[in-house]
Amino acid sequence: xxxxxxxxxxxxxxxxxxxxxxxxxxxxxxxxxxxxxxxxxxxxxxxxxxxxxxxxxxxxxxxxxxxxxxxxxxxxxxxxxxxxxxxxxxxxxxxxxxxxxxxxxxxxxxxxxxxxxxxxxxxxxxxxxxxxxxxxxxxxxxxxxxxxxxxxxxxxxxxxxxxxxxxxxxxxxxxxxxxxxxxxxxxxxxxxxxxxxxxxxxxxxxxxxxxxxxxxxxxxxxxxxxxxxxxxxxxxxxxxxxxxxxxxxxxxxxxxxxxxxxxxxxxxxxxxxxxxxxxxxxxxxxxxxxxxxxxxxxxxxxxxxxxxxxxxxxxxxxxxxxxxxxxxxxxxxxxxxxxxxxxxxxxxxxxxxxxxxxxxxxxxxxxxxxxxxxxxxxxxxxxxxx
Length: 386
Ligand SMILES: Cc1cc2nc3c(=O)[nH]c(=O)nc-3n(C[C@H](O)[C@H](O)[C@H](O)COP(=O)(O)OP(=O)(O)OC[C@H]3O[C@@H](n4cnc5c(N)ncnc54)[C@H](O)[C@@H]3O)c2cc1C
Description:
The structure is a single chain. Helix content is 48%, strand content 14%. It starts with 6 loop residues before the first helix and ends in a 5-residue tail after the last helix. The chain is built from 11 helices and 10 strands. A 4-stranded mixed beta sheet has the order 1-4-5-8. Strands 2-3-7-6 form a 4-stranded antiparallel beta sheet, with no helix packed on it. By secondary structure, it is α+β, with helices and mostly antiparallel strands. The protein folds into 3 domains: 110 residues, Acyl-CoA dehydrogenase/oxidase, N-terminal domain (Butyryl-Coa Dehydrogenase, subunit A, domain 1), CATH 1.10.540; 102 residues, Beta Barrel (Butyryl-CoA Dehydrogenase, subunit A, domain 2); 157 residues, Up-down Bundle (Butyryl-CoA Dehydrogenase, subunit A, domain 3), CATH 1.20.140.10. Helix 8 runs antiparallel to helix 9 and helix 9 runs antiparallel to helix 11. Bound molecules: flavin-adenine dinucleotide (FAD). Flavin-adenine dinucleotide binds next to helix 11.
């Protein structure tokens, strides 16, 4: 399926595809059957190669030694990594552009540049059990005490908590109700894992629950200035929502290709399954929805590159996340159906994606929350300005 993209995007697409095919995809079943964990030498080799290829620096400003790729090229890259199951592409950390706006030079030196070099990994401690989707109601507190802040609160679903070196911790200053973001090192006294729930997917990265009790951090660990706390998270959400769109396009493409190959080869009633029109309908619907998804994802990325109004971009990224994640789930469901019983085996890519893609409708804001964002933008700006 061809859509018009820049030469640069095509270049990164080719590099990422080769990496996904050669370094990641061959290890999916091994990971699936081993709680998501690969032998250390394979994970290290994959990470090393990703760093050599520049993947950790794609969103880093050139002024800090990064590649500063256009968003269109970043989407092209992540689309190809999205073809792989078991989150094997999470073997490297990403330093993102918003971090360079948000962080002080000393924070950049201590946390962000080491991520680009592959020396540190981060995780996000935002969600809480009570407020859930409502991030305006977070209960974790950050109380000033001399030159320090004291953090308290419980954080759920902290992805990669078991692998990360530091947290982005979102809290609130009790007196002025100001949202604040902190960089907090793993191992700081007062941080405790209270649960490591099992989830549907089989990933090496866990999503533990953390209790922060009187965790003391120097004021220099606070990110940005007063009032900016949630704005940084919104930047992160926009980026991630777009990249979820990209990865879901890659997953859907792989699923369609694998289901089609199976349908061509499997013979029922003396003919290939692909000659059955009921099977063709599933393939045709999937390809059509993927086409729409790719067009909207790439167009949203180009809108970012054009520097369009950030509020408009916010709702466009929500539209991408909503539509493309739901599309990929429909495609995975059809792929399982085409594979029949084989599609229900964990060794089958359709079975794995069927479980793994489900969370793309939940994290980084559920589909319902995306709809609320889109509706708010529509009612405020009107269709022509969206
Ligand atoms: C595997 C996994 C990894 C995650 N990783 C991270 C992470 O690294 N860091 C982090 O901070 N968080 C993480 N999350 C949390 C994730 O972002 C939240 O689960 C998500 O935002 C939804 O919040 P909730 O689970 O509390 O659901 P709830 O807010 O309790 O929602 C339950 C249901 O109600 C709906 N709903 C809620 N509010 C409204 C409303 N106003 N109108 C209509 N419907 C509504 C929701 O759409 C949903 O269907 C992760 C979650 C999962 C499952």
